[in-house]
């Protein structure tokens, strides 16, 4: 029976490309492993898979009795609901260490870099395994996505070097041009149901016993949200109520202006104002320089809840 590798709920490109890349590496090393996903894919991820000729990983939400690798997260609330009934063989992640625990030793690769695929590239190098051209292309795109084409404060020299190496393997002459093509796909929101937009890149966090949901929409021009912002605000109110969340924040991120507008609904808005040293106006605020949920949004908010 093969092992599985899966990323977080509401998977992004890093989760999916990590699953594909790690499954190939483990299988090559004699450990049959299958990539899987916990949800539907975003337009950007579908664009990447189509470009490099991949089928969508298997949709699998239950892992009781299975052995699996976890990629791109280590928070229990973001993983399979029955994770406690599975055997975790390893965690490969670039976020803070979450609350997953194991009863047996495990392989653990956690690095403060911009993307999980950067770490997996290091794993390929460590095991001296050649990366196939199509997998290299997908990994490269995931790094460009997670680092916002190197604009994110999470981006490191390791991410940039990995993109350069993967682009050479994949035969991509201008990776940043391909990155812009991906963000144009991300920015095509017209006709998409509001709830699909809110959940396109959404994660729940347990902050001192409070469930906090944070979504992010990255686009090349924030003006595309002008006519739908009221609908987005109304939907995060519904999402908060449905999920019994303390707070929901939706980040509307402009990658060209390099900042984000926060749409907030909370049981205690003062916590959000304290976390970012801002004043909300009509439950909204623009913050210059904020591009990364992982590095710039989650840590100060967790500190404020603590």
Automatic annotation (TrEMBL):
Keywords: Hydrolase, Manganese, Metal-binding. This is inorganic diphosphatase. InterPro entries: DDH_dom, DHH_sf, DHHA2, DHHA2_dom_sf. It catalyses: diphosphate + H2O = 2 phosphate + H(+). One of its GO terms (molecular function) is inorganic diphosphate phosphatase activity. Pfam families: DHH (PF01368), DHHA2 (PF02833). Its EC number is 3.6.1.1. NCBIfam families: PRK05427.1 (NF003877). One of its GO terms (cellular component) is cytoplasm. Its cofactor is Mn(2+). It comes from Psychrosphaera saromensis. Residues 179-305 form the DHHA2 domain.
């Amino acid at each position: 029976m093969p092992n599985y590798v899966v990323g977080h709920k509401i998977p992004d490109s890093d989760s999916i490309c990590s699953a594909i890349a790690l499954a190939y590496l483990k299988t090559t090393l004699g450990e049959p492993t299958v990539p899987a996903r916990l949800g539907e894919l975003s337009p950007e991820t579908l664009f990447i898979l189509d470009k490099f000729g991949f089928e969508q990983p298997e949709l699998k939400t239950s892992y009781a009795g299975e052995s699996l690798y976890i990629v791109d997260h280590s928070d229990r609330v973001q993983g399979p609901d029955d994770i406690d009934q599975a055997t975790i063989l390893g965690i490969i992640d670039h976020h803070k260490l979450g609350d997953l625990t194991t009863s047996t030793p495990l392989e653990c690769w956690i690095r403060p870099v911009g993307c999980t695929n950067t770490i997996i590239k290091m794993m390929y190098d460590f095991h001296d395994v050649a990366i196939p051209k199509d997998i290299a292309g997908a990994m490269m795109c995931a790094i460009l996505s997670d680092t916002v084409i190197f604009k994110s404060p999470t981006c490191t020299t390791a991410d940039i070097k990995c993109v350069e190496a993967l682009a050479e393997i994949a035969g991509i002459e201008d990776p940043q041009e391909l990155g812009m093509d991906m963000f144009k796909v991300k920015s095509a929101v017209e006709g998409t149901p509001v709830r699909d937009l809110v959940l396109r890149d959404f994660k729940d966090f347990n902050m001192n016993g409070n469930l906090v949901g944070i979504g992010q929409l990255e686009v090349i021009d924030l003006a595309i949200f002008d006519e739908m912002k009221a609908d987005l605000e109304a939907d995060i109110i519904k999402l908060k109520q449905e999920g019994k969340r303390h707070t929901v924040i939706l980040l509307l991120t402009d990658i060209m202006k390099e900042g984000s507008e926060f749409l907030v609904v909370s049981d205690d808005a003062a916590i959000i104002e304290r976390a970012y040293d801002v004043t909300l106006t009509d439950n909204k605020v623009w913050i210059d320089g904020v591009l990364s949920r992982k590095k710039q949004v989650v840590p100060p908010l967790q500190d404020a809840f603590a």
